[in-house]
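User: Can you recover a sequence for this backbone? Please restate the input before giving your answer.

Assistant: Of course. Working from this structure:
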């Protein structure tokens, strides 16, 4: 095989799953993602722990100082990053080609041996609290968080990823170290690489770089959320605009109809100016600057959400237009010609996204983490092309008939 292999999936001797994708170019990306996020913070005092660990993992290890960690990739012009979601925590580096060994050894040390010194923790507690304040100052972001709290009430999926100030201030170095031992484990992670290096060479280096990971995770069973009954909630935050999120439950990452749903949601509120919601609320009525529809797919469930910001006096009219647009989408099946045009537009957007190396590497890791195939543009394109007008119409009916919840910050 050697250098002829373009995509390789494997398991290391400790059980860590790996995916390496060989592509040409002057940059490369590698990292590791773990199946652990804010959804797994079942104990209330742990709210914000996953995100706090992501912030403080760069403060040094038992052998390396924080300054060494921060400068190791920057010295070659690379970036060292991390992020937390509801279900994952990822640490990765984007760098000029030829530096993957440097990055892998550093990341391997961080995820298995971070020290979480108290001085660094105290500084980062203040940083995270400032981040929480900044989100509260961004009503569009806050509206999404509050919508999750409403629709997933009583389930850890409702948690804000950042946590609350009072819980963040109480997080200790020992709790962070225990989180690494319990959740950053070989059986709970996926290593990923995308760049010009030979896949087999990369995986041999991964065997060395991640050998110190604990083998088995402490189970944190996830419970399927009971989506709340239909409701409309308005919270006053003194904003000069109303920021509204409306949404409903859809299938998750493993749903058989996820590609049909994705196409339907793109037609309704994707990035194109010809999206139905944009035409209804902005182009024809001038009621909003931004309106968009999107999906958030989790391992066992999903959400379709619609966001818009409008003047206070236009809130009810915008809500009515959203519902009317969903009903119109269900009542007027697309012709084959219209469907073909929307597919071509959506496939063009997917092609542009697939060209982003960083996003391609991250999405490959997430797919393997949750038992899906490595993203393949040709395969995905064929699935979109195979969507029939009848399947799309059924999806439109499901979205129109589903109970629609709404959260407004005004």
């Amino acid at each position: 095989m050697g250098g002829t292999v373009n995509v390789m999936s494997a398991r290391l001797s400790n059980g860590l799953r790996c995916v390496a994708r060989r592509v040409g170019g002057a940059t490369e990306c590698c990292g590791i993602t773990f199946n652990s996020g804010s959804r797994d913070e079942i104990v209330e005092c742990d709210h914000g722990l996953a995100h706090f660990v992501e912030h403080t993992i760069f403060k040094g290890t038992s052998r390396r100082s924080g300054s060494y960690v921060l400068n190791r990739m920057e010295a070659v012009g690379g970036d060292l990053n991390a992020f937390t979601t509801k279900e994952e925590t990822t640490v990765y580096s984007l760098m000029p080609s030829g530096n993957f060994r440097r990055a892998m050894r550093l990341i391997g040390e961080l995820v298995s041996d971070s020290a979480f010194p108290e001085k660094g923790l105290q500084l980062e507690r203040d940083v995270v609290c400032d981040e929480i304040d900044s989100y509260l100052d961004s009503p569009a972001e806050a509206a999404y968080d509050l919508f999750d709290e409403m629709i997933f009430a009583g389930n850890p999926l409702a948690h804000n990823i950042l946590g609350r100030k009072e819980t963040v201030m109480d997080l200790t170095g020992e709790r962070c170290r225990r989180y690494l031992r319990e959740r950053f484990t070989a059986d709970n992670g996926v290593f990923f690489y995308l760049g010009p290096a030979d896949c087999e060479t990369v995986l041999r280096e991964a065997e060395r770089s991640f050998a110190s990971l604990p083998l088995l995770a402490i189970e944190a069973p996830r419970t399927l959320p009971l989506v709340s009954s239909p409701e409309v909630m308005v919270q006053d935050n003194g904003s000069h605009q109303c920021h509204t999120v409306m949404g409903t439950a859809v299938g998750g990452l493993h749903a058989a109809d996820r590609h049909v749903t994705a196409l339907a949601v793109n037609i309704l509120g994707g990035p194109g100016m010809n999206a139905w919601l944009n035409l209804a609320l902005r182009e024809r009525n001038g009621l909003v600057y931004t309106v968009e529809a999107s999906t958030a797919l989790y391992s066992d469930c999903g959400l379709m959400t619609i966001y818009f910001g409008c003047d206070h006096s236009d809130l009810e009219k915008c809500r009515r237009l959203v519902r009317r647009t969903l009903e119109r989408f269900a009542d007027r099946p697309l012709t084959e010609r219209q469907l073909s045009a929307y597919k071509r537009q959506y496939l063009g957007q997917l092609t542009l996204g697939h060209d982003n190396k960083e996003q391609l590497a991250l999405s490959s890791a997430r797919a393997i983490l949750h038992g899906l195939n490595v993203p393949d543009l040709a395969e995905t394109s064929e699935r979109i092309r195979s969507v029939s007008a009848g399947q799309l119409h059924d999806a439109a009916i499901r979205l129109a008939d589903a109970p629609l919840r709404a959260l407004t910050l005004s």
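That completes the design. The domain at 2-209 is CATH 3.30.830.10 (Cytochrome Bc1 Complex; Chain A, domain 1).
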